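Try this one yourself first.
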């Protein structure tokens, strides 16, 4: 009755036609279309997506048609940048990965993706890994004191990757300088580290600098010989957490709207094997989004791993959590049914988006991605 009286009075005051227009407008004036997160990684390996500007235009078009609104484009791989870098030129004499000389794939991607309202994140894929099966590559050959060391004093290697010492201030400063170079020079929407940033294989930390730092904080005691010792794991992972906190703060100081995101391994594997304590990054406010690599080859394993990850996630951080889904690895692609099952499981778990590893896999499922993330 109150509503009727108020409406009648409003009609008399404005006139019936004006009131009808107002009443018709009100229901839709505050309606906002919900935008879901959908990402994919664009690589320079096993893909020609970055080989030319024409290919980048096609990559963006495919993402647009597939409902993907965030592109994580590689900018750091095998000790090379995929953009012209003054820092790399001055430090190592190589301005850009040789095959991209004369171009700027990052700038091209930003220009083309932004035309389609797709966000672009600079993805520092290799992080603190210097090279892959190159005995340290250009970085360690040029700066041998940057090498990470295992308990035997050898160059730290794991799964084919050779590592810089992620605890050494000079190495940290170098990595930070690359990230800030991109933030300062480019209109990126975000920067991202993955399972190698911030990270170090837990077999590392036995170099002279890190051992002396540990001894200074532990009454002269040497680090445990057991690289998986819990206190030793915590001490080293805390160092990397605080490093990433400094990166986060420096990025935000320059451009507050640039997102700082991470795509680590799943927890607790990430911490036990690579000193990545991403629940702590969320707790401390050192990341805007976590995309753990929930890469599994059957639905039961995916469901179990996702459920496990959610046990480490505080409810207030659920809007910052988007799983990575495996779409392609060498010759492997999941079935379309499996893709649908994984995405449906995300939604059933209250997760509103995901990111796909990697871009080439999306092209294998055109019929599904015609409707994905488009409200159809």
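Now uncover the answer:
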């Amino acid at each position: 009755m109150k509503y009727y009286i108020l409406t009648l009075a409003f009609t008399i005051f404005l006139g019936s036609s004006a009131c009808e227009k107002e009443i018709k407008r009100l229901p839709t004036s505050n309606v906002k279309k919900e935008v879901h997160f959908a990402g994919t990684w664009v690589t320079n390996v096993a893909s020609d997506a970055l080989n030319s500007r024409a290919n980048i235009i096609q990559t963006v078009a495919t993402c647009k048609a597939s409902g993907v609104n965030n592109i994580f484009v590689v900018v750091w791989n095998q000790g090379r940048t995929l953009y012209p870098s003054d820092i790399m030129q001055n430090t190592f004499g190589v301005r850009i990965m040789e095959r991209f000389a004369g171009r700027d794939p990052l700038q091209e991607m930003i220009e083309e993706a932004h035309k389609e309202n797709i966000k672009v994140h600079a993805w520092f894929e290799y992080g603190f890994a210097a090279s892959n099966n190159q005995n340290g590559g250009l970085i360690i050959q040029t700066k041998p004191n940057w090498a990470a060391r295992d308990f035997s004093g050898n160059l730290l290697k794991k799964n084919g990757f050779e590592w810089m010492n992620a605890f050494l201030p000079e190495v940290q400063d170098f990595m930070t300088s690359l990230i800030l170079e991109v933030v300062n020079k480019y209109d990126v929407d975000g920067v991202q580290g993955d399972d190698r940033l911030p990270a170090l294989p837990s077999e590392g930390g036995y170099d002279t600098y890190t051992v002396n730092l540990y001894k200074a904080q532990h009454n002269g005691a040497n680090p445990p010989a057991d690289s998986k010792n819990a206190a030793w794991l915590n001490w080293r992972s805390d160092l990397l957490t605080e490093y990433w906190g400094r990166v986060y703060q420096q990025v935000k100081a320059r451009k507050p709207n640039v997102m700082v995101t991470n795509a680590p391994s799943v927890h607790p594997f990430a911490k036990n094997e690579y000193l990545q304590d991403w629940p702590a990054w969320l707790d401390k406010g050192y990341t805007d989004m976590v995309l753990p690599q929930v890469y599994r080859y059957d639905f039961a394993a995916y469901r179990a791993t996702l459920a496990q990850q959610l046990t480490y996630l505080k409810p207030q951080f659920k809007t910052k959590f988007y799983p990575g889904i495996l779409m392609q690895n060498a010759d492997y692609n999941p079935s379309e049914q499996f893709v649908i099952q994984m995405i449906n499981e995300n939604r059933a778990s209250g997760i509103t988006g995901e990111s796909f590893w990697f871009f080439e896999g999306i092209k294998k499922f055109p019929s599904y991605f015609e409707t994905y993330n488009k409200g159809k």
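Discussion: The longest strand covers residues 119-124. Residues 1-31 form one domain.
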